Amino acid sequence: MSSSRVAYLGPVGTFTEQAVIQWDADGVYEHRPVASVGHAVADLQSGAAQAAVVPFENSVEGSVPATLQALLEGDGVRITGEVLVPVQFSLLVRPGTPRESIQVIATHPHAAAQTRDWIRSHLPTAEVVPESSTARAAQAVAEGRYDAAVAAAGAAEAYGLVELVAGIADREGAVTRFVVLGQDRSSVPEPTGADRTTLVAHIWANRPGALLELLEQFAVRGIDLSRLESRPTGEGLGEYCFWIDADAHLTEPRLREALVGLRRTCREVRFLGSYPRADRRTATIPEHAEAQVYAEAHRWVDDLG
């Protein structure tokens, strides 16, 4: 058995497990399902796991609040990679269950939101109840607690269910982005040219121009932001922080100067990691933001005496 473990949102049969299998294709790690994103982060912090894989955002439903909260509270944790998993939902039932007998359907809230129209059209009288994961919903159906589950097709085999209807998502092509977590003493992965840096910035105060000032740190340095989201800090109504995905690597001079600007103008900045993009999309760097231009500018200043 491997001496290294990766914790992930379980139980067996979740989309997160698919992400783990995709990431750990060589089977280097022992795969450890846990009950929640918070448990995965806690395992990493305690040393019970050497890595963790958790859902971060979905192309239809947006970010996963439980993960954002766990990362905000998870001191000593850093993002080291990401995985993209196409999401396809099926309606799973116990063998012999007819569609007309389905009254209660269990699933994760994100899955419920992505299959709402299908359920309304095909099972209009059914009640949809939330579970902590789609696989947990499938497990509960196997235990007889619900009539059906909306989950990945793979969960049927894991829990002795059958796929009554496949492909029930309201929109095709949905993708979930999962992040791979390591301890913050982990070294930052080497730059690949197709990298992402995730940050959380807390502005000093909610005042006119505060967001513009934050964005200018990236704009004037030619850094594209692939994600910007405001989230409540929990410190009071109207208090927000900004989650940022910047298409650049920590080793790039343009990003390092942007971080200096953020640190100077924000109350707090959390660096959550620089890592390769799963889609391998390279960043477009304007000529004025290339590394050699920064180097020449620094030499010019040094020569001024």
Instruction: Tell me the structural class.
Output: alpha/beta
H/E element order: EHEHEEHEEEHHEHEHEEEHEEHEH
Which residue ranges are poorly predicted, with pLDDT under 50 across at least 5 consecutive positions? none
Q: Residue share in helices? A: 25-40%
Number of helices: 10
Rg for CA atoms = 22 Å
Number of strands: 15
Question: How much strand content do the residues show?
Answer: 25-35%
Mean pLDDT across the residues is 93
Q: N- to C-terminal separation?
A: 61 Å
Shape: elongated
Largest sheet: 6 strands, mixed
What descriptors fit this protein?
six-stranded mixed β-sheet; 15 strands; five-stranded mixed β-sheet; 30% helix; 305 residues
Notes on the protein architecture:
There is one protein chain. The chain has 305 residues and is an alpha/beta fold. Helix content is 30%, strand content 31%. The chain is built from 10 helices and 15 strands. It has helices at residues 15-23, 37-46, 65-73, 109-114, 116-122, 134-142, 154-159, 210-219, 253-265, 291-303; strands spanning 5-9, 30-34, 51-58, 62-63, 77-86, 90-93, 104-107, 127-130, 148-151, 162-166, 175-183, 195-203, 225-232, 240-246, 266-276. The strands form 3 sheets. Strands 1, 2, 3, 4, 5 and 11 form a 6-stranded mixed beta sheet that branches. Strand 1, helix 1 (15-23) and strand 2 form a beta-alpha-beta unit. Helix 8 packs antiparallel against helix 9. The N and C termini lie far apart (61 Å). The mean pLDDT is 93.
